Amino acid sequence: MAARRQKAPGTTAGRNRRDTYGSAYVQGTAAPKLEPQSMPEKHRPAKGQSVRTSNRIRRNQERAMYMDLPYVILLTIASICTLYLCIQYLHVQSSITARMHNIEVMEAKLEKMRAENDALETSINTSIDLNKIYEIATKELGMVYARKNQVLLYDKTESEYVRQYEDIPEY
Fold first, then answer.
1. Tens of pLDDT along 75-134?
2. Burial 45-54 (b: 16+ CB within 10 A, else e)
3. Is 19 exposed, middle or buried (0-12, 13-18, 19+ CB in 10 A)?
């Protein structure tokens, strides 16, 4: 059974006004058979074009693809420069990574030393017995607290310290 196209009013040969290439709607269940596609247009010669002209085009395309010696040398130099830059980049990147690792190791050592220092400082502060120091100073060494009349006060000078040029007088 052949599919029938219904003729729309105002159209010719049963085609709709909106029909364009590839968008024709077929009424019914049978689709029209498509014609097999031939070679693309750019590879086959046109109707007015001869075989000689197509050979000339092919030769021009081959010439365009041909690489002469200066072009090959320039391309080789560019490739070597690119390879050198990539190797240098990887070298710099690895040295940065090594330095970062070294910094992390040193920071861990510093943190460990700070912890040890804090522990030693705490143990020193807890081992000091101020009462024992006072007892040794007063009983064994004979030291006593200064009385009010023994303390002499001096005004501070610009140099922020006092120089003693002679002995302090006793009262």
1. 999 999 999 999 999 999 999 999 999 999 999 999 999 999 999 999 988 888 888 889
2. eeeeeeeeee
3. middle
What is the spatial distance between Cα 72 and Cα 78, in angstroms, rounded to a whole number?
10
pTM, entire model: 0.39
Residue 101 and residue 103: Cα distance in Å, rounded? 5
pLDDT at 1 over 50: no
Neighbouring C-beta atoms of residue 24, cutoff 10 Å: 13
Give 1's contacts (C-beta < 8 A, 6+ positions apart): 30
Closest CA to 170 of 156, 143, 152: 152
Q: Which two tokens stand for residue 104?
A: 């992390």
Q: What percent of the chain has pLDDT over 90?
A: 33
* φ, ψ dihedrals at 67, nearest 5°: -110, 120
Q: How much is the average pLDDT of 133-147?
A: 89
The Cα-based distances of 6 to 9, 14, 21, 33, 62 in angstroms read 9, 6, 18, 18, 53
Compute the distance between CA of residue 135 and CA of residue 144 in angstroms, rounded to an integer: 11
The Cα–Cα gap between 168 and 152 comes to 9
d(CA 150, CA 50): 129
